[in-house]
Amino acid sequence: MKKYLVFIFLLSLTVIGKAQLPPVFSSERSAQSRKEETVRRYLPPVRIVWQSDNAPEQIKNVATLLKKGTGQADLTGKNLCILSSKGKGKPGILLDFGKELHGGLQLVTDQSKGGKPIRIRVRFGESVAEAMSDIADTAKNATNDHAMRDEIISLPWLGKTEIGNTGFRFVRIDLVDENAELKLKEVNAIFIYRDIPYLGSFKCSDTLLNKIWMTGAYTVHLNMQDYLWDGIKRDRLAWVGDMHPETSTIAAVFGYNNVVPKTMDFARDITPLPSYMNGMVSYSMWWVLIQHDWYMHNGDLAYLKQQKPYLQQLLKHYMEKIDANNSEVLTDGARFLDWPSSENIPAIHAGLQSMLVMTLSTGAELLDLLKDPATAKQCREAVARLKKNVPDANHSKQAAALLSLSGLMPPQKANEMISENGVHDYSTFFGYYMLQAKAKAGDYQGGIDDIRNYWGPMLALGATTFWEDFNVDWLPNSSRIDELVPEGKKDIHGDYGAYCYKGFRHSLAHGWASGPTPWLTEHVLGLQVVAPGCRVIRVKPNLGDLTFAEGTFPTPYGIVKVKHVKLKSGKVETTITAPAGVKVLR
């Protein structure tokens, strides 16, 4: 009886407690709150890259910052890094956190003289040179665009401060005031990311290709924040066209993830028709193509049905943009493929003509699934008209790739244009479609070589993620991004770039550059989805000069595993393990 009364008493306290919760915890207030799908980890730096002049006198015990901390200030006064501006000049240090991260910085401080705050300047950088730059340096375009990466803050006495929300690998910290002393217990990177497993994998006899596959996967993983971003420094926006390589990578590496439909719906909901997503005539077309690819991988017909009203009206709008000469006339928005092709007006026309063919063909397939045969028929009739007008690629590899993928240009002819002068005139975004066009022409070895020769040099320059743009013409005499630029060398981050990505504004972690990751999975491992929801997968490897390739591929039913070994005879021996529910074609 006594135990029962104690239980009733404790239960009454619980009920009373719930009734007395402050309004912020009420069910109504809770419904108004927003929960992010990311986690936070705290990482110490791995290297001290640079210390200011007079470091022996002004900087003490800096190596202690490399140790794992607790995130808690204490009164022991031990294991502190001390920066002092009591001598000549003001001290500064440059820290390397080992690889590109998304997030900010946590600083744990000890006691300061008089208990007064100490001012410091913090500079984040995707390269060493960017972290060492000044916002006032207009020549190299150092900016605080999209994310604050250069600011002055005050640190408390015996406290913990968090600053920043950007993409970075390097952080420079400087004392601002004269005659000041700062005692730092810890400096940790705040790593903000989705804690999800890498279900897909790729391993072959070329370690460079292995590293490229993983770097593409990691680049996209960083951009899978609350929404799917273009870049973690800039642009921290949902650019729908740029998403297509990213969603292809997500399907190959992570399988289903909520960030894709969430971002696709966001783009739809903020773009009432007849407006185009992101203001670009091609980006609503990419939305249609992503919807198709996402459905093929995940087989979620209920989600696809939610898109029906918007999809129908969007496709009808596009069908109205064909003139009497069977030419696209998409003149009511920005006409854009990618930045390197943006001044080639005939190439843009050829690319948009191709994309309209791809969009309406794909749209017809989706409408068949959505039980709208009438509009599907109209789409196919429009495609037949468009195919009567084949524009010239005007020496553009971007246009040639799209002409091939849309069926407007023979694959071999397109491949000849793309292969001319190697990987010169490649781009990080449309490089994916150039690779796809090479695969369509059966030039798998050419695709493998182009991946090595275009994405490989970024890694050789110290990259841990792939960049917004890259040009092999930048390579001669350029320094690595993880070192101070030596005298007489070019700063590949600050000295190059164009359009919206000049100098340090150039993003070095851009998801649209991840194309080699899904391409290697699809064409080297040979894993191609044939039926919606991965119910049927075709395995057709293309090893080229590789001696083996193996990996995994996520499906709604589980993981498909493949291993291909090239025998001395040249024949490829394949082993496949597939979960129940997945039919494999050879």
Automatic annotation (TrEMBL):
Listed Pfam families: Bac_rhamnosid6H (PF17389), Bac_rhamnosid_C (PF17390), Glyco_hydro_78_N (PF21104)
**Stretches assigned to the Glycosyl hydrolase family 78 alpha-rhamnosidase N-terminal domain:** 89-184
Gene3D superfamilies assigned: 1.50.10.10, Galactose-binding domain-like (2.60.120.260), Maltose phosphorylase, domain 3 (2.60.420.10)
Q: Which InterPro entries match?
A: 6-hairpin_glycosidase_sf (IPR008928), 6hp_glycosidase-like_sf (IPR012341), Bac_rhamnosid6H (IPR035396), Bac_rhamnosid_C (IPR035398), Glyco_hydro_78_N (IPR049164)
The record's annotation in SUPFAM superfamilies points to: Six-hairpin glycosidases
Q: Which GO terms describe its biological process?
A: carbohydrate metabolic process
Question: Which segments constitute the Alpha-L-rhamnosidase six-hairpin glycosidase domain?
Answer: 199-389
Lineage: superkingdom: Bacteria
Alpha-L-rhamnosidase C-terminal domain segment(s): 526-583
- Spell out the protein name for this chain: Alpha-L-rhamnosidase
Taxonomic lineage is: Bacteria, Pseudomonadati, Bacteroidota, Sphingobacteriia, Sphingobacteriales
